[in-house]
Fold this sequence. Notes:
By secondary structure, the protein is an all-alpha fold. The chain has one domain (15-214). Helix content is 81%, strand content 0%. The protein contains eight helices and no strands. The chain has helices at residues 2-12, 15-40, 45-57, 62-68, 74-87, 92-106, 116-145, 151-214. Helix 1 crosses helix 8 (151-214) and helix 4 (62-68) runs antiparallel to helix 5 (74-87). The protein starts with a helix and ends in a 7-residue tail after the last helix.
Amino acid sequence: MFTTMAQFFQAGGPMMGVILGVLAGAAAVGAERLHFFMRTAREDADRLVTDVARHVADGDLQAPLQGLDGNDGPAARLLRRGVAELWEGAAADEVRRAVEEAALVELPRYGRRLNYLPMLANVATLAGLLGTIFGLQQSFGALAAADAATKASVLAAGIGQAMNTTAFGLMVAMPCLVLHARLGSLAQRRSDACDAALVRFLNFCDAHEKTRRAAPCRVVG
Length: 221
């Protein structure tokens, strides 16, 4: 198998290395995004809001701050910002402004680097087409200098380079597009869930403001 792969790459010409580099870049982006979604942003934003609201309603601001520490997900970071504002005695409007400002930084984390994948798919496809042109140029250039006995083999080698490069470019481009669609859908769902949870939290802060002013939160320490 390895011999066949080596022959495939050798017959494909210089653009095979470019396409292989594109494949490595797409794999790096995919691995980083999967790690983000499966580890960093694997959080139940709705449950986090429920827990935070329960503690805040009980007048305990320290517990949610401690519970959110060490969680680097976007929803947790935004809730921590909101609770920190409450800790400082901010009004609901001030909490809303602070959280919305932080959301401009945190929510785009879901879609970070995903735009690289369609770009890499296009590069792989174009590199394959360029390799096809190189292969055909090599074929017709060599045919002029070849004798009748070797013309067939020279033409076959050039066409083989052209077809191998095109095939490899498409083999890399298609998974890039599929991965972009899958991760893009996941990013949208996670971002929407985070956004909905933040609306719940901010609405809770609005409803709780009168009670908090009448009976200030008790700091548990």
